[in-house]
Amino acid sequence: MKVLVTGAAGFIGYHTAATLLARGDEVVGIDDLNAYYEVSLKEARLARLREHPGFTFERMDVADAEAVAAMLARHRDVVRIVHLAAQAGVRYSLVNPFSYARANVGGVLALLEAARRLPALEHFVFASSSSVYGLNTTVPFSVGDRTDAPASFYAATKKATEGTAHVYAHLYGVPTSGLRFFTVYGPWGRPDMAAFLFTRKILAGEPIPVFNHGEMRRDFTYIDDIVAGVIGCLDAVPFDAALVPPFRIYNLGNNRTERLLDFIAVLEQALGRKANLDFKPMQPGDIQETYADIRESKRDFGFEPRTTIGEGIPRFVAWYKEFYGV
Ligand SMILES: NC(=O)c1ccc[n+]([C@@H]2O[C@H](COP(=O)([O-])OP(=O)(O)OC[C@H]3O[C@@H](n4cnc5c(N)ncnc54)[C@H](O)[C@@H]3O)[C@@H](O)[C@H]2O)c1
Question: Which of 66, 114, 153, 221 is the one with CA 20 to 30 A from 107?
Answer without folding.
Answer: 221
